[in-house]
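TL;DR need structure tokens for one chain.
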Amino acid sequence: QPNIILAVCAADVDLANSEALKASRRNDPLGMRTIGVITKVDTTEPDAAVHMLTQNDYPLHLGYIGVVCKPVQEKAGITSHAVMLSEAQYFNKHPGFQQPGVQIGVGTLRRKLVRVLEESMRQNLSTLVDAVRSELEETRYQIKVQYNDERVSPESYMAESLDVLKQKFKAFQQQFGKPQLRAEVQRWLESQVMNVCAELYWSDPAVQDLSNHVTRSRAAGWWADISTKVGQTATAAASVITELLAANTAKEQKGPRLSKQSDTSKDANGRGRAKNGADANEWSENDDVYWGHQLDRASALLTKSGVGRWTTQMVVDLLMDNVVSMVDAEPFVHHADTRTAVLNFSHAILRNKYHSTVDQVENTIKPFKYEVEIEPHEWSKARKRSAALIDNEIRLCRQALQKVRLSTPKKQLQQAVQFVKGAEKRGLDPLSVQAEIARRNAEQATSSQPEASDAASANSDSHDITGNNVEDLGYSQYSPRLLRQAQQVLMVQDRLSILHMRRKALASSACASPDNKRFCPETFLDVVAEKLAYNA
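>> reply
TL;DR here they are.
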């Protein structure tokens, strides 16, 4: 906006056809900051040149200035002073150029530009001066309010700045203490619990048997109680009947029938016990040993995951972020050297205490690396928390499925999922097969001789991973991206089914007691995480 426009036009060209004037009108419609420069005035009649300089058909606020431009061959070896002298001689020959309001000559153009630029700078500087004065008045007012018109010395300013820093540290200490730190550590450890469960349990094919055993245990317990009560009732009835038979010796023929009835009851009771024993044999001692070993591994992964190092680093990051926010505010934001000194001093303090703090935290949680004692109320709370964590994992899996389904047409995704299922049943990886097909096609396209083609075909047959007629299976009609999405859908669906089983297992009565911790690793690991968070 503040730029000055020079519209340069030749005197032998009609102003109505001047491209320079058209361009200046687009950027300066009112002509307030445009200077018209008419060149080659000596190539037209003096009266026509004067009329062009004074016309009002295309008015400009800064006017038109005429100059004489000699041909290039006449300018060779001539200084600017000589050109201006020659120009003045031409204008002096014609009285029409001496009329009032007619601006001519390079000197006039130079003085005009200097005056216009000075005026533009004066206007802009006046705006800057007003802004500086306003800021100065605001600063004076703030000094009056804060210091009551007292004289501020460097010592008092430094003391007040340090008091501000101390107050900010005190406010941060009140806002962030041990409860907040424990909550942060608890969240991190809960995420580690989910990672450990995914690595050791949810990816284990035997986890389905574990979940089924836990969910069946309640029904099996009911059946065992009923069988026991029926057996006890039958035994008591048989005893009463035997006593009655002994007392009534006159009716001996009823003895065998009653004795048979007693034997039948015993047989029925024995079959019930045998059935319960068969159910119990489905879960062997080897299974208990295996899942007990998995629980020990999971506990070791959690307790030896660098809790001391991670918690200490978290505190360091929180403190440094708070220090940075302090020095980025008043008054340190205006003092770069002081800001740097405070940051360096904070880094030095934290660096000197970092390793000793890590060792102290690791020593604090060291007992939990060997044995974890669980109280019933701790188990009950952890059971609720672990159920909430699994519910969150289920929600995340559903969101991932929804994201894939929204990014891919439904029919294409269903077909690709069915195709990947079929390939996995044959023991094939669809992406590997597709890459092999692409390699074979490339070899066939680049082979230029029949012998090379026959050799490539023989080599392909020797490395056939899918059997004959690989292309007939339809691998080429699915893109690698679609196959990856189909595999992702199947993986998330499998994880969802496992999570639902585990959620059902946690809600069963078998997980109500810490004695069955090997059946409920999510709850046990949550107890361990809570103890680690509290002590760390």
